[in-house]
Design a protein that fits this description.
Layout: H1 2-12, H2 16-30, H3 40-61, H4 63-69, H5 82-103, H6 105-122, H7 134-153, H8 163-176, H9 185-190, H10 196-200, H11 202-216, H12 219-225, H13 235-252, H14 256-279
Helix pairs in contact: 2-3, 2-7, 2-14, 3-5, 3-6, 5-6, 6-7, 7-8, 8-11, 11-13, 13-14
Length: about 280
């Protein structure tokens, strides 16, 4: 029993729920959700279960690759079987949709998109994960735009969503999530995944990724110039640039894990700074 609990926790990657929760509440608070609405609990729970299911499914379909890149994960290490993993995925997705239906039809449609992206990312014939650019774009839409919109839609209709914030979050997440691919290059090359570091080569991918990130973090300044945001939002550029420079340095010095950790920190920091721009 204890073994299965540990395997479940590692399969769903509980640590990812920190960023997931902050992304959801960024949209919720940006929409004016300073009160606790009746729909908040099922909406937030549905969002969490969706990510849990996507993480578990990804580990099920990547069991062979993980045996090379991450052999300590639950399935390649033998903590649970592949069949048990898929059973967990089915249960989590069923809960996701059931909870989403309790919120509203618009929210249910949105969480269904999140479910589709989670499945299409890992399952053939879609298998977005192995497709050049589409892999990073699907993550950016799922974690950047959709998570924000799930929080937003708990309070406000999708038609009123701030397009400039969605553009910034999607652009940032698109280029930031490339960082996860550098440490997986050995297994990805063997199994034919067409990630940016594989297709462009490590050095060129780093140049493309970080050039784009530096440009992306100029967007808040542009939004301020166009009077879309207040002065506090400009701090997203300042803090973002500093962390991007540190992550860039890590990759140039072959500290792939360090770069990835800084990008995860930046993912959280960006959302917190957006929330702060609303509060102050």
């Amino acid at each position: 029993m204890n073994r299965h609990i540990k395997a479940f926790v590692r399969l769903i990657k509980v640590e990812d729920q920190i960023g997931n929760a902050i992304a959801f509440f960024t949209g919720y608070i940006f929409a004016g959700g300073f009160s606790i609405y009746e729909s908040l609990l099922p909406a937030f729970a549905s969002t969490c279960f969706s990510l849990m299911a996507a993480n578990a499914l990804n580990q099920c379909t990547d069991a062979d690759t993980d045996a090379i890149n991450k052999p300590d994960r639950p399935i390649p290490s033998g903590m649970i079987s592949l069949r048990e993993g898929y059973s967990i995925v089915a249960m989590l997705y069923a809960i996701t949709l059931a909870l989403g239906a309790l919120v509203s039809m618009e929210f249910f449609a949105l969480i269904s998109i999140a479910v589709f992206l989670g499945i299409a990312y890992s399952i053939r014939p879609f298998r977005f994960k192995d497709r050049f650019i589409i892999s990073n774009l699907s993550i950016a839409i799922g974690y950047g735009a959709v998570n924000f919109l799930l929080g937003w839609n708990t309070v406000m209709p999708l038609s009123a969503a701030p397009l400039h914030v969605l553009l910034f979050l999607t652009a940032f997440d698109f280029f930031a999530n490339i960082s996860k691919d550098y440490r997986d290059m050995e297994g990805d090359r063997i199994y034919g995944a067409r990630t940016m570091p594989i297709v462009l080569g490590r050095s060129r991918a780093i140049v493309v990724q970080f050039s784009a990130l530096y440009i992306t973090f100029m967007m808040p300044v542009l939004f301020y110039t166009l009077a879309y945001v207040n002065t506090s939002f400009v701090f997203v550029s300042v803090i973002g640039m500093l962390l991007v420079m540190q992550a860039h340095k890590d990759l140039l010095e072959d500290r792939d894990v360090g770069c990835y950790k800084k990008m995860m920190l930046l993912y959280i920091a960006v959302r917190l700074m957006i929330i702060a721009s609303i509060l102050f």
